[in-house]
Amino acid sequence: MENPRETHMQNRKGRRLILFPVPLQGHINPLLQLANILYTRGFSITIIHTQFNPPNHINYPHFTFHSIPDGLLETEASTADVIAFHTLLNVSCVAPFRDCLAKSLADVSKEPVACLITDAIWHFTRAVAEALEIRRLVLRTSSVSSFLAFAALPFLPEKGYLPIQESRLEEPVQELPPLKVKDLPVIDTRNAEDLYQLLSRMVKETKASSGLILNSFEDLEQFEMARCRQEFRIPIFPVGPFNKYFPASSSSLLAQDQSSISWLNSQASKSVIYVSFGSVAAINEAEFLEIAWGLADSKQPFLWVVRPGLVRGSEWLEPLPNGFLENLDGRCHIVKWAPQEKVLAHPATGGFWTHSGWNSTLESICEGVPMICLPCFGDQMVNARYVSHVWRVGVHLERKLERGEIERAIRRLMVESDGKETRKRIMHLKEKVDNCFRKGGSSYRALENLISYISSF
Ligand code: UDP
C-alpha cells in the first residue's frame, strides 16, 4: 500500500482533478480511495462535497476541499428512503455545485483542471460539466452485474417482472442471468416512479460521459464487463478493487472501535464470525432477536457491529433479553462500528456475515474470508446471488430469517466440510485479485489506460 503523503512534489503532473462523492459511506469510501490512487499518480485533487456527511478533511491534508450547501432540511437528511434522498440532492445541489465548480475552474492559483469525476448517481453534473466545458468521467461504486441490473430495471415493469409478485419470486429473469425475480435490485421508496427516473437518468448521463470507472476487476465479472462494454459505448476502466490500494478507514464517517482488534487477539485462529450490515441497512426488532439467538446458538465466537439505527425504533442493544450477553461468557464482542478491513484481515476471523454491500463484498474477497449473505435491498440482492451461486464463496440466507436457519448457516460455513470448500474457492479468488494488480494484470493495465486517457485531455 502506498502512502499518498509520501508522493514527491516533483512527481506532480501539473494537472488537477475535481471529484464529487455521493454523501453515503459506501460511496464516499471508493471515491476517496480513487482520489488517493490518482493523487499518487501525480494529479492534484480537489473534492467538492455536500454539508451532509462531509469527509474527514484531517485525514487528507494533501487534498483541497470545498463544501457546498446541499439544501437538505433536518428531516430530509436521512437515508431511510435513499431514493427520495438522491432525487432531492440531484435538484438541490445543482446551483451550489455549478457555482463551486465554476470558481474552481477559474482559480488561476491552482493547476489547470483535467476533468471532473463524479459518482454516477449525480446525473445532474452532466449538464453542468457541459455548460462549463469540462470533461466528466463517472465512477460507479457498485458491481458491474448490479449496475446492469439497475440499468435494466426501468424496462422490467413492461415485461411483467415488476412490481414483484410473491408467486414469481423464484422465476429466473431471462434478461439478467443468473438473477431470479427476488434478486432484482428494487429499493422501496415513497414513489416507485422516482426509482425508475433516477436509474434512467443515471444510465443516460453515464452513457453521455467521457468514461466509466469501475470498482471491480475483469476476472471477477468478465461476462458482465463484456455486456457493459456493449451497452455503454464509452471507455471503461475496471481498476478495482480500490481497497487493495488504500484502506477505507480514513474516510470512515463513524469512529471505528479498536477494541474489536484487541478482542480478536484473544480468539482462536479462524474461529470468529464477524457480523456487520453496513451503514444504511435497517432491520426490525424481531429480526434482530432471531439474529442474536442464531449467533448464540451457533456456539461460535462472534464480533457484531450493531450500528445505532440498525434496529428500527431502538437506540442500540435494548431489545436484547436480560442476561443475554452475560450468558455468552465472553464469546461475543459488540461494537457500534468496527475497523472492518483490519477485522477481515485478522487471523482469528473465519467468516463474515454481511448485508452484501459491494465494498464489504470486495473487502471480504481481498482477505479470503467466506461470507454469509443477508441482503436487505438494492444491489445487495445481486451481490448475494453472485457470491453464493456464481463465485460460490458464501452461503445465502434466502429463507425466513429464523434462529435455526442462522445457526445451521453459521455451522455450515465455520465448522462443516462444505465451509472448507467455500474457503478454498475464496482463497482462489483472492489470488486472482492479487494477479490483476501485477504488472500486465487487468486492473494494472486499466489504471495505466485511465491515467494516460485523463492526461490526454
Ligand atoms: N465499514 C466500517 N466499519 C463497520 C462496517 C462497515 O468501516 O463497522 C465500512 C466497510 O469497510 C465498507 C463500508 O463501511 O467500506 C460499507 O460499504 P458497503 O458498500 O459494504 O455497504 P453500505 O454501507 O454502502 O450499505
From TrEMBL:
Q: Does the keyword Electron transport apply?
A: no
SUPFAM superfamilies for this protein: UDP-Glycosyltransferase/glycogen phosphorylase
State the CDD domains in the record: GT1_Gtf-like (cd03784)
- The answer to whether UniProt assigns keyword Chloroplast to this entry is no
Q: Name one GO molecular function term.
A: quercetin 7-O-glucosyltransferase activity
Question: According to its UniProt record, which protein family does this protein belong to?
Answer: Belongs to the UDP-glycosyltransferase family.
What's this protein's name?
A: UDP-glycosyltransferase 76F1
Tell me one Pfam family matched here: UDPGT
Biological process (GO), any one: salicylic acid mediated signaling pathway
Q: State the organism of origin.
A: Morella rubra
> Which key words tag this protein in UniProt?
Transferase
Specify the domain of life of the species encoding this protein. Eukaryota
